[in-house]
Design goal:
The chain is mainly alpha-helical. The chain has helices at residues 2-24, 44-63, 67-85, 105-111, 116-136, 144-169, 174-199, 204-227, 239-249, and strands at residues 39-41, 97-99. 71% of the residues lie in helices and 2% in strands. Helix 1 (2-24) runs antiparallel to helix 5 (116-136), helix 2 packs antiparallel against helix 3 and helix 7 runs antiparallel to helix 8 (204-227). The longest helix has 26 residues, at 144-169.
């Protein structure tokens, strides 16, 4: 039992450290100070409250018999469940990430001097070493063929983290970005002249000019947002929601 609790805690810490290192690539001000101040312990009372709301939702769904009542009840109860459980606005005011238990003093001493990326790999190595030790001591009675799937899935997760680090830490080529901005500026000046030459209309010319320029500028802004998807804005990937779901399942 103690092994499973420790392993679950390490998995949540691994996810929290990975997400924090990716978000630090966007907000470099988070590097200073306590490296574990972004963590907060899991509130089990809150989980009980959310579980009770989920049970009430399932009970209401069972009382809906007809098709129309089922759709209506599902919609209303889902909105009520999300509003009460905080899933509609899942971001915390302080942007701290939840873990089952805060790292112990010994774990903080080992992780503190490391870089954010190395902390992720260190916790991953703890998980692998703990599983191997439990298996060698005979307390983890699982066939090696099945046990190897754990290491394979963990390896795939670390591979995905490395791919995400490439996106987060390798900047977009600066000369290419400047050339794109220059070309769009030149096109904004040439486009009205070219369109007016073909249309010769006081109505169609400004309409097409605005439509084309807004399209090009909008595509450029979308590309700029996709360049760094690991922030805390509404247009970024929902890393906090994904991690909160992992902690709830753990």
């Amino acid at each position: 039992m103690r092994f499973r609790v420790r392993l679950s805690n390490w998995f949540t810490s691994l996810s929290a450290l990975a997400f924090q290192s990716l978000q630090m690539s966007v907000d470099e001000d988070d590097v200073s100070g306590d490296p574990f101040q972004f963590m907060r312990a899991y509130d089990f009372e809150e989980r009980s409250r959310r579980s009770a709301i989920s049970r009430r939702r399932r009970s209401t769904m069972r009382r809906c018999n007809t098709g129309e009542r089922r759709v209506f009840c599902a919609s209303m109860e889902t909105l009520n469940f999300l509003a009460q459980s905080g899933d509609i606005f899942p971001f915390r005011s302080d942007h701290r990430i939840t873990v089952l238990c805060l790292p112990t003093q010994k774990e903080q001493e080992q992780l503190g001097p490391l870089t954010p990326e190395d902390r992720v790999f260190r916790v991953s190595s703890w998980i692998v070493e703990a599983i191997i030790a439990e298996h060698q001591q005979g307390r983890l009675k699982t066939h090696p063929a099945i046990l190897s799937r754990i290491f394979q899935e963990l390896s795939d997760g670390m591979l995905g983290y490395n791919q995400a680090c490439k996106i987060a830490f390798i900047p977009f080529p600066f000369p290419f970005a400047q050339i794109m901005a220059l070309v769009i500026s030149l096109w904004a000046g040439i486009c009205p002249v070219v369109i007016d030459h073909f249309t010769q209309s006081l109505v169609i010319t400004p309409f097409l000019t605005v439509l084309i320029l807004v399209s090009y500028v909008g595509l450029n802004q979308i590309a700029m947002n996709l360049e760094m998807p690991f922030g805390l804005g509404v247009h970024h990937l929902p890393l906090s929601q994904i991690h909160e779901q992992l902690v709830d399942y753990a």
